[in-house]
Amino acid sequence: MDRDRCTELDADDPLADRRARFRLPGERIYLDGNSLGAFQDAVLEAVLGAAGTWRRDAIAGWNAGWVELPSAAAGRLAPLIGAHLSEVAVVDSTSANLFKAVVAGLALRPQRRRIVVAEEEFPTDRYVVSGIAELTAAEIAVAPRASVEDALDPHTAVVLLSHVDYRTGDRLELEEVTARVHAAGAVIVWDLSHSVGALALDLPRADVDLAVGCSYKFLNGGPGAPAWIYASRTHHDELATALRGWFGHAEPFEFAPDYVPAPGAQRFHNGTPPILSLAALHGALEVFESLDLRALEAKTASLTDVFIRLVDQRCPDVEVVTPRDPARRGAQVSLRHEHAHALIRALAARGVIGDHRPPDLLRFGFAPLYVRHVDVYNAVEVLADLLETDAWDRPEFHARERVP
Ligand SMILES: *Cc1c(COP(=O)(O)O)cnc(C)c1O
Question: What is the tens place of the pLDDT at every residue in 364-382?
């Protein structure tokens, strides 16, 4: 693997034209799209449009498109997970949606009380489940991600899992794990925060019950963008939500005293939608229109593969933590090094943006719509140079920041 080969791969990239829509930060190589996706001019236009409507028309904005904006955003998102529009709501944060999804999962299995969650799960997922357990008297079983199936028993109502692990980039087999959870009579809730926008997902085909995900990572919706929640059509007749805000009512503007759920996943709507943030997300999702998801996943596999090969060649002292089989990883590669934090700071000073997860992981995200193979090549050259010269070992690179 060399620079010329990377240039060839970029020349053959069927997604190459999408990169022009992004405004990447200066001359830097941005490998942190798994934490915060990059900016597009379409986002600014959409936000200015919504703000302009507010300035010009004030309250009339609701009847000039705002009230339909959540479903317009869901309409752009649904194809990325293979969903029907009635199965998706764009709403709230991933954390709030986890609460709604796990509680809905418990309600689908009223005779069972156990929630199984992976030990390595993203903290918010674990925290939310602990709150649900206190509220509902459900019991929690924590199991290693690799052997979650061993924890399934006749009491298991819900299994909550991240498809791609935020720390290691390890990917589980969505269809297989879902089938095993179903064989045990339980309901699966997938957290797809690190999958959507980078991998080819088809939730109905995989028979997924419920899922949630983030919109500010590979979907590029902007900091704190509204998240999404998915509920399979097979469950809509018995689907229950505990957070019954008026926007999840069948007829919110009837102001009726009694709760009647909106159809399908729309019942997961909660309070008044955040129009400016929704406009940003709606604008951001335009780049995915009529995109071939297999090409998206192939680019993800190719970028991560090139990165791993180059790290093996050029940085023999760092350990690649992420699985080498592309079917077993997402769009992220993590490397282990004792001085991960200082290395990430030193890389940033040289224009290569990744991030650090304590204690010793360097994390790099490869957003398939705007990262090129040649960027990967250049990034590894900088990393190799820092390691060879020990240039990372300077006091300013050891200082801690509030957000790592
Ligand atoms: C990023 C991420 C979240 C984020 O949750 P927020 O409520 O948006 O802060 C949740 N779960 C996983 C697995 C994530 O990677």
Answer: 999 999 999 999 999 999 9
